[in-house]
Design brief:
The chain is an alpha/beta fold. The chain has helices spanning 57-63, 85-103, 115-126, 147-152, 160-164, 171-181, 185-195, 200-213, 221-233, 236-239, 271-280, 297-300, 304-307, 309-321, and strands at 8-14, 17-22, 36-39, 68-72, 108-113, 131-137, 243-244, 247-248, 258-263, 285-291, 328-333. It has one domain: 3-Layer(aba) Sandwich (Rossmann fold), CATH 3.40.50.1820. Helices cover 40% and strands 17% of the residues. A 9-stranded mixed sheet has the order 1-2-4-3-5-6-9-10-11, with helices on both faces. The longest helix is centred in the first third of the chain and has 19 residues, at 85-103. The chain is globular, with a radius of gyration of 19 Å. 44% of the residues are buried.
């Protein structure tokens, strides 16, 4: 079974980054609807959003008639150790401009996953007039609610400069932090694999997800330094003190519809960390969708096609095609 099965074309490169446009399916976006840009995490391979048939955020959106693009951050090399947080957000801004030029749209919707949601939120706050909608898919905003990962990088015992001064944060070092959240996870994976050895389809799905989970990439040192210090340790997004290229990031500037998606067993981004986006923004409409599973399983697990994809696609089709509406607030729970 191939990885990243949804047909796409590369339409722009920017350093290590590549912007993809997914080819439309039989169901097309309504005339005049804004396009959508998927923004994955900076430190994981992008294809978690297009993992395999039946487990693909991108595939579900394309099939649902959403005009969909994706920013692949690429793999940072040693020479990228000085790539800054501002540089990363600059690449996101250029990708958005390219999508606007490619479609002729005045605004672009953003769907960020994990750290990609944090970056998308910052971009939306800096560029509210060009953001049609914002989906926070399990992304942290209030880092005081960051759980054990926030505890691990507490400045009382975590010196980010000592790590960043040595160069890019290696995949193995980052993975050790996630392993510390669930020390028995590797053993549980092995037991689960043995249980499914008789089922070829389940075994193949396990192998594909495990391939992605072990295909980690470095975090550029300078971007890592600011992300840990200013976003994690100082919680600057919530404090209103974060700056990008000299501009203050004010979450209250976000006026577009906002959908926050949380997973009920997410140990990496606890729901309270993500829900702060709706609470702190001035969104014209806010909705909360909670789905079953953990941080990754909720997005690509067997229940995602039933619980996550239809609800997310329906919401995006509506808000990307809609004219601005009066401020409302709603909450929805997906079926398990």
């Amino acid at each position: 079974m191939p990885l990243a099965p949804t047909p796409k074309d590369a339409i722009q490169t920017d350093g290590t980054a590549t912007l993809y446009r997914f080819r439309p399916a039989a169901t097309r976006a309504p005339a005049g609807a804004a396009p959508l840009l998927l923004v994955p995490s900076l430190i994981n391979r992008w294809y978690v959003l297009d993992l395999k048939p039946g487990a693909s955020v991108a595939g579900a959106l394309v099939e649902g008639g959403v005009e969909t693009y994706l920013l692949d951050w690429g793999i940072a090399g040693d020479e990228d150790r000085y790539l800054s947080w501002d540089d990363v957000l600059g690449r996101l801004a250029r990708a958005v401009r390219k999508v606007r030029r490619d479609t002729g749209a005045a605004k672009v919707g953003l769907l960020g996953y994990c750290m990609g949601a944090t970056l998308s939120t910052i971009h939306a706050a800096l560029h509210p007039d060009e953001t049609a909608a914002l989906v926070n898919l399990a992304g942290p905003i209030d880092f005081s609610e960051g759980g054990f990962l926030r505890h691990m990088v507490d400045p009382k015992w975590f010196d980010v400069d000592a790590i960043a001064d040595a160069g890019n944060m290696s995949p193995s070092a980052m993975q050790s932090g996630f392993t510390a959240l669930r020390p028995t996870q590797n053993l549980a994976k092995l037991v689960n694999y043995v249980d499914k050895m008789h089922d070829p389809a389940a075994r193949e799905a396990f192998d594909i997800l495990d391939e992605w989970a072990t295909d980690n990439i470095p975090f550029p040192a300078e971007a890592y330094r600011r992300y840990i210090r200013e976003i994690y340790q100082e919680n600057q997004l919530i404090q209103g003190t974060h700056h990008v290229a000299g501009r203050r990031v004010d979450l209250r500037a976000i006026r577009c519809p906002v959908l926050t998606i949380t997973a009920d067993r997410d140990a990496i981004v606890p729901p309270r960390a993500a829900l702060a986006l709706a609470e702190r923004s001035n969104a014209s409409e806010t909705e909360h969708l909670t789905v079953p599973g953990g941080h990754v399983g909720a997005v690509v697990g067997s229940r995602a096609a039933r619980s996550l994809y239809p609800a997310m696609t329906a919401w995006l089709r509506r808000v990307l095609a809609a004219r601005p509406a009066a401020a409302t607030s709603a909450s929805a729970v997906a079926p398990s």
